[in-house]
Amino acid sequence: MGYKEDSVAMNDAHILPNVTQNMVDEQDLSGPTPDHVRSTFHRYAKLFTAADAKAIADLYSPDAIVRDPVTAPAVTGRQDIEKWYQACFDAAGPMDMTVAEDVRVAGRYGAASFTVFAGAETTAFRSDTLDVMVFDDDGLITSMTAYWGPTNIHMLEKA
User: Fold this and answer.
1) 85-137 pLDDT tens trace
2) Of 3, 28, 35, 44, which one is the catalytic site residue?
3) For residues 42 and 101, is the Cβ–Cβ distance under 8 A?
4) Quick check: is 85 catalytic?
5) pTM for the full model?
């Protein structure tokens, strides 16, 4: 379909079809700004690549919950979240995480695809995830749920 994209501010969205306009109007847009949510996703990826478990944990509220992957038991509380990330970094070695697509934001909710490259001495892999984060009014992450499974892990040959 040959459409030309024209960015329209949500306040000017009156040209949307009624059903879409109603969905936009009914959204709860409380919480941090969309720019804050987007920047947190990008900061998270940089800190993950740097293997900085403490700085990642500081992105979370004190009683936050992490499920990574979504089928795993919950990790609760900033202190345990820091330990969990550190254990991941210790086990996997160097990793490189990037935001694979645009961050989607709806009020205090954000979602984005990440690509993680990891490599040990003899094996390397790519993992593709979809992470959903919920933020409190102070802009801290209250929950992070990562959607991925065995079909999202791709073994790579070391060059």
Assistant:
1) 999 999 888 899 999 999 999 889 999 999 999 986 667 899 999 999 999 99
2) 44
3) no
4) no
5) 0.84
